[in-house]
């Protein structure tokens, strides 16, 4: 069994599930953190039921993890609302899940990586971080991940640890069917189709590889051409 150990949040569905499957196929051991039941059965996979929006629980879970070589924070939700009619409870949930969970996990686990002079951190962001009507609160949380990644990358670059963000355009996951986003249909990228979770997983796998050791502090977009028109 591989000695490489990755922690993946949101491992039960969507992008997190695709990343988990890709890493297992490559021989990684994976610990999945998710409030939903596990959907993978594999000898190298361990599931931990965790409410990632509960800060103290996330911190306690992080302290119980050992020998972590990579953190992939893929868990996420989407709540929409225009200014003047914002969903404040939804905004708080997105902040707790996207940003606070990331800070709590990395605050415990990155020092362990720097002590071993090796480690990888990847946050799943979004092209919406650049701003989009009706999604200001969501965009703010994803933009925060970019700022955190660049700041922490600068702190740990000399210690063999990389921190990056992968920001996809509209992706073919169950989130597209969430009734909370019924009023805002996804925009197809210029390639004429949605991004596939497996395409995101492939990039994450590369960022975890030795060949990507010089890539850090970056926000890498998988946009299907959406970023070309500026």
Q: Fraction of residues in helices?
A: 25-40%
Please state roughly what percent of the residues sit in beta strands, choosing from under 5%, 5-15%, 15-25%, 25-35%, 35-45% or over 45%: 15-25%
Query: Tell me about the biggest sheet?
Result: 7 strands, parallel
Amino-to-carboxy terminus distance: 47 Å
Uncertain runs: none
Overall, the morphology is globular
- Give the SSE order as H and E letters: EHEEHEHEHEHE
Query: Averaging pLDDT over every residue, what do you get?
Result: 93
Strand order of the largest sheet: 3-2-1-4-5-6-7
Rg estimate, integer Å? 17 Å
Structural class: alpha/beta
Number of helices: 5
Count the strands? 7
Features:
7 strands; 36% helix; single chain; 5 helices; 230 residues; alpha/beta; seven-stranded parallel beta sheet
